[in-house]
Amino acid sequence: MDKPNKFAGKFEFLEHTADAYIAAYGATMEEALGNAARAMFEVMTDTQKVNPAHREAVEVEAEDEYALLYSWLEALLVKFEVEGMLFSKFEVHSFKETKEGFKLKATVWGEKFNPGKHPQKVGVKAATYHQMEIIREADKATLMFILDI
Amino acid sequence: MGEDAGRAPTLRVPLEKIDDYSWRIPRFRPGMQVPGLIFANEALIEKMKTDRTMEQCANVAHLPGIYKNAITLPDGHEGYGFPIGGVAATDYDAGVISPGGVGYDINCGVRLLTTNLTEKDVRPKLAQLAESIFTNVPSGLGSRRKDFTISKSDQDRVVVEGVNWLIEKGMGWAQDAEHCEEQGCMKNANPDKVSPTAKNRGVTQLGTLGSGNHFLEIQKVDKILNPETAKTFGIEAEGQVMVMIHCGSRGYGHQVCSDYLRVMEHAVQKYKISLPDRELACAPGGSSEARDYYQAMACAVNYAFCNRQAITHWVRQSFQQVYNQDPEKFGLKLVYDVAHNIAKVETHNVEGGKKKVWVHRKGATRAFPPGHVEVPQDYRSKGQPVLIPGSMGTSSWVLVGTEKAMDLSFGSTAHGAGRMMSRSAAKRKYWGGDIKAGLEKRGIVVRAASSMILAEEADPAYKNVDVVADVSDKVGIATKVARLVPLAVVKG
Prior knowledge:
The structure holds 2 protein chains of 2 kinds.
Chain A: E1 11-14, E2 20-26, H1 29-44, E3 54-62, H2 65-83, E4 85-97, E5 102-112, E6 126-127, E7 133-137, E8 140-148
Antiparallel strand pairs in A: 1-2, 2-8, 3-5, 4-5, 6-8, 7-8
Chain B: E1 16-19, E2 22-25, E3 36-39, H1 42-48, H2 53-60, E4 70-77, E5 84-91, E6 96-97, E7 109-118, H3 119-122, H4 126-136, H5 152-161, H6 163-168, H7 174-178, H8 196-203, E8 215-224, H9 227-232, E9 240-247, H10 250-270, E10 283-284, H11 288-323, E11 331-339, E12 341-350, E13 353-362, E14 365-366, E15 385-388, E16 396-400, H12 403-408, E17 412-413, H13 423-429, H14 432-441, E18 445-448, H15 451-456, H16 465-475, E19 479-491
Helix pairs in contact in B: 4-11, 5-11, 8-10, 10-11
């Protein structure tokens, strides 16, 4: 049912007893953040069935990189819960250090959740800081985090 | 089973065996204020050794003002900062309160309804009943009832007034409130301390089951072990049909936790609290941060009571629709509604005197003894009902609180089965369709929004709840009353 290679190089689900443990990858932080968001929606549904018809701009600020990853995922989760939006395409344009911390600007694409069209997987309760790791290398960024489900 | 384990422990935690069911983690690090105390048999202890449960128990023992022991219950497993299946009581003034000691799903809990029907009575209509409940109770991703909406100002009243708000709207019976922990309305709830985001998440989700391990089951009484207490709780005979509802405070509670984890991160720096793990973030009992969290948490607690109340109403409606008779005719009385994730201000005997404490129960059930003023009047001679749900397709338990729980675990016991296997491992090993067929072969009707959830929630992925109930009974922190088994399962 699950084809683990479908998102090879973008993200993968790691072993965890209770929750969803995700590693998201990218050549840049921006790309890795986009893949992290895609992984979260893949926990909830089959994102290949989510038509990127509707476009939204998202901005997030936080005091450090960890909090930024957390807030980015939370902002999108809230969009699902409050507006019923599922997203399947993410472009993080900028990821910058500011005086107060870090700031992210992104465009996201998706459509309204339709139970007849979008397979239901598991609802995500929250992003967490548990075992969160951000590994930045010269040509690669890896984000590891757990979603409470 | 290596692949099924959580992350390997990073720290060797010394363990002393007290007796067959109790273990002590001595104060092996200088910051530990108290020892750790674990209630488990050998097999459960071995399982705990494969993840960071014990390390987290030792971490909790560092909390400022913690009394007696950091307690891990038989269903304990690795959580965020605090293990899930644990209790920590801290001094009301000199201690701290920590949102991580409650968890994301504030007042995730269980309620149990009795009926006066037997398995034989419901069997012919069982599939129809399950279908009706599945239709009436929104379950699964993003599901909601179109005919039940509340405004944000309604929601603010719901979280202050608790289940009485719904009872006044005709979505409950007067006696329902009496049979809830906190009478279905925790005091000190203040919606001004809840963020707009939490309110936005909550307003569309009241009266929804959610997904994951949450469920609704039609059950039958399989075995009565304490007939006198069972009778007091309305459990009269083996074969009697019951309904169990397991869910929490949905996005409202999750967001309250998330918001206050951030507040507490700052509080840790502001009050210079030294902690072994960032996820234990907390604030001193007397601080404004502690007060704000407690008032917001109480809102989420009441939200969850009301969530289960609305679902109860639709379960009663389902019986009415299927049998075309008044639900009162089938009993459908509330036995009890109990929280599994909560922080409370309580008075306990500590160091020879009475102390006001913050009791954190994360994946733990309150288990108050006979005679306690918080136990409903009609149960007071026996003690508080303790409800421990099993995993999908297995048994669930009704236990009763004891004086020993007051001595050993701040009036608390276990809350469930606890996972053994990761979701991805369960999915690789099982297929939703097979799980459903297996349950149906045993005569259990299944209605689920997602077949993937069925595989993830497959029974072998969990610890055996019978063993968890057994350890609680043997230690004496809540003793067995009755075992329930499912007839029909409704899942998100």
